[in-house]
Each structure stands twice: as structure tokens, then as C-alpha cells.
Amino acid sequence: MSKAFFQVDDLNTWFFTRKGTIKSVRDISFDVSRGEVLGIVGESGSGKSVTGMSIMGQIDEPGRIVSGSISLNGEELTKLDFEEMRRYRGNRIAMVFQNPLMTLNPLMRVRDQMYEAIGAHEDVPRNAMHKRCIEALRAVGIPSPEERLNAYPHEMSGGMRQRVVIAIALLLGPDLIIADEPTTALDVTIQAQIIYQIRRQIDERGLGMIWITHDLSTLSELADRIMVMYAGAMMEIGTTEEIIGGARHPYTRKLLDSVPSRNVPGEKLKQIPGNMPSLMALGEGCPFASRCERVTEICREPVPATQLSDTHRIWCLHPFEN
Amino acid sequence: MFSFVLQRLVQSVIVVLILSIVLFVGVRLIGNPVDILISSEASEADRLAAIVALGLDKPLWEQYLTFLGNAVRGDWGTSFVYKEPVVGILLQRLPASLELGLVAFVLAVSISIPAGLYAGLRPQSPLGRGIMAFSLVGISIPTFWQGMLLIVAFGIALPILPVGDRGQLATHFGITSSLWTLDGWSHVIMPAFSLALLKMSLLMRVTRAATMEICRLDFVKFAYAKGVRNRKVVIGHILRNALVPLVTVTGIELGNLLAYGVITETVFSWPGLGKLLINSIKVLDRPMIVAQLTYTALLFIAINFLVDILHMAIDPRVKSVLRRRES
Questions:
Q1: How many domains would you assign to chain B?
Q2: pTM value > 0.90
Q3: d(CA B272, CA B290)
Q4: Where exactly are the transmembrane stretches of this chain (chain B) (predicted)?
Q5: Which of A17, A180, A239, B148 is the most buried (most CB within 10 A)?
Q6: Which residues of A touch B222 (CB under 8 A)?
């Protein structure tokens, strides 16, 4: 694997509300290489989306990146002001959102929403913009792109709209694309097509991707590496084989057990009992302790990372043996 | 598009017809104008003569048809009080009301939309909170009270603005208005602000609420994620989408400003339609009342039509719904 061009180190993103501080992201570190898909998996509230928005520099009040570093091609992003960060957004780092029905402005033609993305970063004549948009739409498998360019979002299906969004993300040839549950709102056949097209773009262009999802089965097809998050913290990170085939963390195991296709047909789906702890009242120790079967007294203490292989890291004092 | 316009025209005619019947009958219920117009010492013969002269001896349906026939030909009857054609009196008063209403409208819109937008974008900021506090005050104070306060403050205590009347008039391009002269402006600005205050406050709140709602939506976050400049996101995405609800509310407010300036016109003794309407109702000047209320109805129909056209221009989804209904 080529060297990482994108790195996140000890990222902390907290929200300072009246009721207290919500520590949505705590000490997250990972990297992404060219041509690589890093999957981030976790339940809702695990901090995976906040991680994505932190990278985009789009954390809204009362939230803020408290500490840590995010660097792209050696450039530190957390130190940039709004205008400097704006130049990165959409240009070097692009984002795809979860719900394609909500991502496009309903009052603007697809063309204008695409032109706007190019115009924000480059001074290009209209016919050149037009050509680039057509190419981008074709690249994600949109039939008759000329027509689509003149359409309004409501004239297209959800799958088509998500392709448009992905085309917009690809428009400026970014280094990194963050996709926050981009196929969750789509039906399974469309999901498979879009995943195929995205994978092709990643391989062809050698860009890096962070794929945020709660769906481990999608990741097993698409991702090169998987990072498991729980209650704002990292639980386990490793290659897809290491996670899907040889997860060592009790939480990852539970997560894998709850994937429907891995259960015996007709049997009840396996759930993880209990709820995620409040992000305001986290102790020093492992956040999963309250729901974990293997919990002991030492789990209340801070848990150090254990390096299992070059790629496999885990935050657990009682991991499963392989 | 064409069939939409046609459909709306037919609808409008029906609405006006129904309204004219309701008005015609309703006005009869308020009281008998003969009692007011004739002195209490008049003889029975004088009384009957007056009834015949006003055409009140004929059956109601005949009176209505006569009225309708005349109205279509532009004759809205003769005022019981002024003994002049109603249309002439209306046209004479109309410019005063229009200029007051329009100035108030421009004031309301040009202040409330930027202010509401700002308050929606930065709800926690001191200025954002200040704008909300201002709008709360604007909504809470009764119009006649704040009008009197304004007169006391800027007309008497700090006498920088004249009170009452339209001031100096001038005629340009065939329009006689006080807005052509500086003196006219000094007369109109205070009543216009007084009239605008409530609408301004309402529009601020609507704009703020719409802005806050839209800011949460994904397409705004996506626009920022594309790297679009802040100003462009605010104007091209947030404000543009906020216009959809705003146009509706603004249209209604425009109608209200142009037609229901009654209180403000009374407080500032502004020689407009509002004062005329109140006086006409007091003396049961039936043709005057009917003509004015019909004018109001036509005004609202026209504004609603304009609002629909604007909606189509702003929101492509409206157009496609219409297209689907037509096919």
C-alpha cells in the first residue's frame, strides 16, 4: 500500500451545550492512502459523522475541534481560517451526504449546482465547465447527461440524484472523498451499482475515500480497511480481512453478530443489549464496559492501544484470541 | 401557463361575484341609511321621496342587478353623502393610500428581510437577539398607540417631522403624489413607519424562522462542502429557499398595507381610503362601502395572482405540479 497522504491524529471534537460538554469524538487517529477506502463503522451517535464533518471543517456552533491534527498532503487543516478551508472544501476534499433527496437544492438546476462547485475554485469559461460536468455525470453512469444537466432535482430518482452528488464530488478531482452513508437511503440494486462505480473511480483516479456507515456488510465488499467507533472513541482498526474475519474486540464481535446475513435464517437477530452511554458522562475507561460481557475492574481505567499487527490495532484489555 | 392564467381569471370573476352578493346583502343588515341621511324632523313624504330617490323601494334582487349592470359599465353608484360618483371619490383618495402603503411596504421588506436573515443565521449573537426583541415589541404594541408615541416623540417633543396631511404634492409622469417632493416625504415617512412596524416585525420572525429551518438542511451543508463562498450560500441557497414561504406572507402583508391602513390613517389624519371607509360605515354610505370593499377584494385577488406567478418563478416544483394537473 502506498504511503498515507491524509492523516488524523488524536482528534477531539466536543460540543459545548448548556447541559454539559458532549465529547462526540475522542482521540481519533487514522490515515488514508491513495486508492484506498477506509470504512468507519459504528452505531448512530458513535461520532462517525462528526469525524467526517470535523475533517470538512464544518462543525457548527456550539461544537469545536478541541485538539488534534488533520493533515492533507502535509498541510495542517485545523489551523486554517474559513476562507483558507473553503479552498480545500469541494476542491481537495469532497463530501457525499446520506440522503440524496435532501443534498441538492430543490430550486436550482443540476447544471447550476455543478457550475457553482467549479466556479467556487476555478475561473473556467462556461463551455469548459459544461464539458467537465458532462464527463463527470457520464463517469458515474448517468444516461443522457446533457438532459440531466438541465433538469431540476425533483425530476430525478433518488439513485440518479446520488449519482449527481457523487459526480459533483468528483468534479474538481479531489484527493479525498468523505461519504457519509451514501447508499443507506437507496434500494439494494442501486446501492450495488453505485458502490461499483465509486470503487472504479477510486481505482482509476487513485483518490482516497472515507466511507462512513453503520452497515458492515457494505464495507466488507468495498473497504480496504475498517475502523470501528463506539461512543466517540476508536475500538478497533485493521484491514477488512482482519476486522471481518478476525475481529478481536468484543464490540466488533457483537457488531458482526448482529449483521442479518450472518445469522441463521429464521432465528432471532442478535442484538447488543443495553444502550450507548451518555457522551456527557463518560469515565476514563472503556466506553463499552457497561455492555461488555468480558468486563472486569481494570476496564474502568484508561485503555491503551494494543498493536496486533502492522495494520491491526485494538483498544481492549480483554480481547478475543484468534 | 396560459391555461393557468385563464383558470385563475375565471376563478377571480366568480369570487368577485359571490363577494358582491355578500356585500350587497350584508351592507343592508347594518342599518337603513335613510334614517341617518334625513333629519329627524322630516315628514313622512320627504322620507318616502328619499327612499325612491336612492332606489331603495325596489326589491333587493332588482337593486342588485341594477347595481351589477351599472358596475360592469364602470358606474359604481353615487355616494349618499357626497352626492358624487363613488369611483371619482375613490380615485381621488387612492393615491394617498397607495403612497402610504407602498412606502410602508418598502420599509417593511427592506428592513425585515435582511434583519430576519441575519437573526436566522446568527440566532445566538447579540444583534440577532436584539432583532428578535425589537420584533417582539413591534408585534406587541398596538398600532394606534405606537402611532401616537411617534407623534409625541418626533412631532411634538422633538419637532423634526410634520404631523398630519400629505404635505406638498407634485405631478410627474401623470401621477400626482407627495413622494415627488421632500416636504411630501417628511409627511409620509412617520405614518409609513408606524404602519410598517407590525408587518416588519412579523416578516422578521417569518424570515428568521425560515432561515433557521433551511440552514439545518443538507443542501446548505452540501453547498458549503462544495466550497461555495459564504455570501453565495446565504443568497443563492438559504435566502432563495426562504423566499418560498416569504412570498406568500409578504403578499398578504402588501394587501393589508394597501387596504387596511385605517388605524394609521386615522391617527395621522392621512386623507386616504382607510379614513374614507370608516366615515362611510359611520354614515352608512352604502355605495361607498361596497365600492371600497370590492376594491379591497380585487386588490387581494391581484396580489394572490402575483404571488402564484412568483412562486412558479422561484420554485420549479410548483410548475411541474401544474403541468401534471393539466395533462
A1: 1
A2: no
A3: 17
A4: 12-31, 100-121, 133-158, 178-198, 238-263, 293-314
A5: A180
A6: 95, 97, 103-104, 165
